[in-house]
Amino acid sequence: MNSPLWSNVVTQLTPYVPGEQPAGVGLVKLNTNENPYGPSPKVVAAIASALDDSLRLYPDPTASKLRETIATYYQLTPEQVFVGNGSDEVLAFVFQGLLAHGRPILFPDISYSFYPVYCQLYGIEFQTMALDEHLNIQVADYISPQLPAIGGIIFPNPNAPTGRVLPLDAIEEIIKAHPNTVVVIDEAYIDFGGETAIPLIARYSNVLITQSLSKSRALAGLRVGLALGHPLLIEALVRIKDSFNSYPLDRLALAGATAAFEDQDYFLTTCAKIIRERALLTQALSERGFNVLPSGANFLFVTHKHQSGLGLYQGLRAQNVIVRHFNKPRINEYLRITIGTPKENAALLAALDVLLAA
Ligand SMILES: Cc1ncc(COP(=O)(O)O)c(C=O)c1O
């Protein structure tokens, strides 16, 4: 129901709907691409040691220690690093501060479903670009001379929910073709397989990369995301932040996120485990009649040759296994399945075997 007290923007908004976060225990939760392993024990210890009387004080508004840690990790300068309350917040600032130019922006027709919501929120026109029949981004479309004057480009790499990876040389072609337009690469899943575009920052002032600590660093509950790029692009995000909320990251988030970047061994080990499980699950699903798209992310995007996507989703849900089904054109026969622990993946396969035998 609407209210006459609402602004026009709110009345017209269709908000993003996040994946289900069920309260019950005993569910196999493979629906929101969280990390099946906990964060590094060093992250938990850092948060615990930040839990003291200093919580009465505001956190550092510039997040300088975290930004320096990330800059060192990626061989950048702190002026090339922005941090925010999850990459969703960082992306919201990017849309408002770098993509709203009164010209349409481009993103794939099958992609992160928050992008059109930000466009609606900030009154940004957009044009979606069709993925090819294998759900790959068609680079030629993004560099075509027939394109109208655009306000920017954004796509995830690996793409979500497909998991498909775009090679770095293809990304560079797109960036090179639009020197006066920001090209945003949303690398929420990059640590599971794709090649990061961070090296391109040194050569192109129009590339902005966003990343998340929610997936590969197992900190979805802490809400930390980041953007990397030319200092002038970062400055735009700082200006938006400082006109909105001086302290998007609290003291615990700053401590935990810094420790996450300091514990590279744990990060590499858990990513490797997930990548190994992805290969095993791909094989097991293929043997059961699924078509599994090659994925560079911590999830698989699959269709079955005989069963409907919705039927499988509901059949799994009835057995307490939650995966993601999108009731959208082109992808409504697909399931997106987050890679779990070996035990969770075995439970998924057992539940599928029940459905496929019926
Ligand atoms: C492509 C993509 N970008 C960004 C995000 C947001 O991540 P977060 O706000 O948890 O950092 C997600 C979350 O699922 C995603 O799939």
Textual characterization of the structure:
The protein has 358 residues and is of the alpha/beta class. It is 38% helix and 14% strand. The protein is built from twelve helices and twelve strands. Helix 4 packs across helix 8. The chain starts with 7 loop residues before the first helix and ends with a helix. Bound molecules: pyridoxal-5'-phosphate. Pyridoxal-5'-phosphate binds next to helix 4.
List the defining traits of the structure above.
358 residues, alpha/beta, Aspartate Aminotransferase, domain 2, 2 domains, three-stranded antiparallel β-sheet, binds pyridoxal-5'-phosphate
CATH superfamily of the largest domain: Type I PLP-dependent aspartate aminotransferase-like (Major domain)
Could you name the CATH class of the largest domain?
Alpha Beta
Structural class of the secondary structure composition? alpha/beta
Largest sheet: 7 strands, mixed
Low-pLDDT stretches = none
> What would the CATH topology of the largest domain be?
Aspartate Aminotransferase, domain 2
Question: What is the radius of gyration computed over CA atoms, rounded to a whole number of angstroms?
Answer: 21 Å
Bound molecules: pyridoxal-5'-phosphate
The oligomerization state is single chain
Structural domain tally: 2
Number of strands: 12
Count of individual helical segments? 12
N-to-C CA distance: 42 Å
Which strand order spans the largest sheet, edge to edge or round the barrel? 2-8-7-6-5-3-4
The overall pLDDT average reads 97
User: How much of the polypeptide forms β-strand, as a percent range?
Assistant: 5-15%
Helical proportion?
25-40%
